[in-house]
Amino acid sequence: MLVLLPPSETKSPDGDGPPLDLTTLSTPDLTPVRAQLVEALIRLAADPPAARAALGLSPARDVELARNAALCTSPTKPAVERYTGVLYDALDVRTLTRAQRARADRRLAVGSALFGLARATDAIPAYRLSAGSALPGLPTLRALWRPVLAPVLAASGELVVDLRSGAYQALAPVPGAVTVDVLSERPDGSRTVVSHANKAHKGRVARLLATTTAEPDDVVRVRALLRRAGLHVEHDGATALTLVLPAA
């Protein structure tokens, strides 16, 4: 099972790993696009006004430009520890047992605008690039990633549970992937999309899937696993699951 996580805009700035070496990352088929984007971000960082415009940053966030400028020299850390924020707080890999972490390292990957796909153990630096960014002189990220990333994901041979946001799913859709939507149900039975807490609940789902000793190989077994954990999960008969939560 491969659990695809969305990245986060916020990232841990530290690390004690060696500088980025693209040849050591998983999925070497993605190396040429990764190298093209790394080079483009470093070059762009030398022109702060253009970089701010391309990345949607204010001058107050120039620290992000400095991180991009240092992509090839700054320390790295495992991808699953690099990203921070609500989803990753709920995933909370630092509290996993050794056996749980080994399973999580095998199963978790992050959909990344810069790296395409970063497996949990891939050593990456802090950076700033979002799925909707448009880099000067380059095609859209969707045009760059889809031809190389979509075949990689389609040929993984694993059940894919895709928890990425829509923008990252668009970079490389995965036909037949299990998806999870989060809805809030009011006492009158009406439902609304969960906004802020959506990431936290997906983080909890990711933790369950990453650490289970079971090996679910289809959507029915994923649903059963989540239900055994006490979650109210509905299945529409295809590969979409809906996590229903009582309204706060």
Task: Explain briefly what this protein structure is.
This protein has 248 residues and is an alpha/beta fold.
Give the arrangement of secondary structure elements.
Blueprint: E1 2-5, H1 31-45, H2 48-55, H3 62-69, E2 77-78, H4 79-82, H5 86-91, H6 98-107, E3 108-112, E4 116-119, E5 123-124, H7 141-154, E6 160-162, H8 166-169, E7 178-185, E8 191-193, H9 196-211, H10 219-228, E9 233-235, E10 240-246
Parallel strand pairs: 1-3, 1-6, 6-7, 7-10
Antiparallel strand pairs: 2-5, 3-4, 7-8, 9-10
Helix pairs in contact: 1-3, 6-9
Describe what you observe in this structure.
It contains ten helices and ten strands. By secondary structure, the chain is of the alpha/beta class. The strands form two sheets. Strands 1, 3, 4, 6, 7, 8, 9 and 10 form an eight-stranded mixed β-sheet that branches. The chain has a two-stranded antiparallel ribbon with strand order 2-5. Helix 1 packs across helix 3 and helix 6 (98-107) crosses helix 9. It is globular and about 55 Å long. The two termini are 32 Å apart. The mean pLDDT is 96.
